[in-house]
Each structure stands twice: as C-alpha cells, then as structure tokens.
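TICKET: design request
STATUS: open
ATTACHED STRUCTURE:
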C-alpha cells in the first residue's frame, strides 16, 4: 500500500471530523495506528516507509523518553467537534454493573424504528434477554444481558455511534 504525505494529511483530517478514538490500518508492508487521548504503547517495529509520488514519510520506533508533549494543537484538531461529556458516575452506595459495547458500531434500542425499545430505564431484565442491538458492517448484533437486574441508566441515544468498550447502560443486579 502506497500512502503519500498528502493522503496521510487527508486521512488525519477526516479522522478529526469523527468520534473515533482509535484507527488501525494494516497491510503486509506496514501497520499504522492512530489514537486520540488515553495511553500510548510503543511496540518494537522496523522502520516503515510510506512512499508515494513526490513525498516519502519514514516512521520508526521512538522511545517513550524521547517523545515531547505537543505544544499546540494542529489546525485540523481545532476544527474537530467537541468530545461528549463523560457519563455521570453512579452513586457510591449502589453496586451497578456496566453494559459495554463489544465492538464499534451503531447502537439501536429497538429491533426496528417503529417497534418499542428492548428495555427502558426502570425495567427488570433477565439473564440472556436482548437489551439492544449494535450494527457493525450491516450486521445486527444483539447484546444479551449477562446478569438479571434493573436498568438504572441508558447512556447512549438511539442510532448513535458507539466505540468498543463504551458504557451503554448501567444495571443494578438482583
């Protein structure tokens, strides 16, 4: 896969206009991972060269001690939409379990737009009951309850994109 500097800039600008926090591109010749926030891991890899017409970018392993914090946000980052506010923390006296997304996709509360949602706040659920759908690559993946309990919070709006590990709901186990 050939990727020149202009294509790399276009890719980064496009990613800045989304809510993605991580993107990995793999090819037989290289691997590129882009992450926003969170921690950074450094893996020993050989120098990777992205060659294209007119521009060549060479990336190599950088030890953590040599990485300097950014002094200013790149122009494309300034145009990015603001990040959503973190979910409110559950009360300390409650033992709540988080229902998290097992994949990146689109969250749906009901099996079809004209049907009632699988669950609402305050509903009691049983083990194995479908609580929502995550659509990924045109496949509808039903999420089933891993515990019987009561839905305390639903943190995602219908048809909203979700990320791997994102908390979708909070359940008070019975």
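STATUS: resolved
RESOLUTION: sequence designed for all positions
ATTACHED SEQUENCE:
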């Amino acid at each position: 896969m050939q990727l020149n500097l202009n294509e790399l800039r276009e890719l980064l600008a496009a990613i800045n206009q989304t809510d993605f926090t991580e993107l990995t591109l793999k090819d037989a010749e290289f691997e590129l991972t882009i992450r926003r926030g969170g921690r950074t891991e450094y893996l020993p890899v050989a120098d990777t060269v992205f060659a294209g017409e007119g521009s060549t970018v060479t990336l190599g392993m950088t030890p953590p001690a040599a990485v300097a914090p950014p002094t200013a946000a790149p122009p494309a980052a300034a145009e990015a939409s603001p990040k959503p506010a973190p979910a409110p923390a559950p009360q300390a006296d409650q033992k709540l379990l988080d229902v998290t997304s097992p994949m990146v996709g689109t969250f749906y509360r009901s099996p079809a737009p004209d049907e009632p949602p699988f669950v609402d706040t305050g509903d009691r659920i049983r083990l194995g009951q479908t609580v929502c759908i995550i659509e990924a690559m045109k496949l509808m993946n039903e999420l089933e309850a891993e515990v019987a309990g009561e839905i305390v919070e639903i943190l995602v709006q219908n048809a909203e994109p979700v990320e791997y590990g994102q908390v979708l709901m909070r359940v008070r186990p019975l």
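CLOSING REMARK: The first helix runs from residue 5 to 16. The domain at 97-173 is CATH 2.40.50.100 (OB fold (Dihydrolipoamide Acetyltransferase, E2P)).
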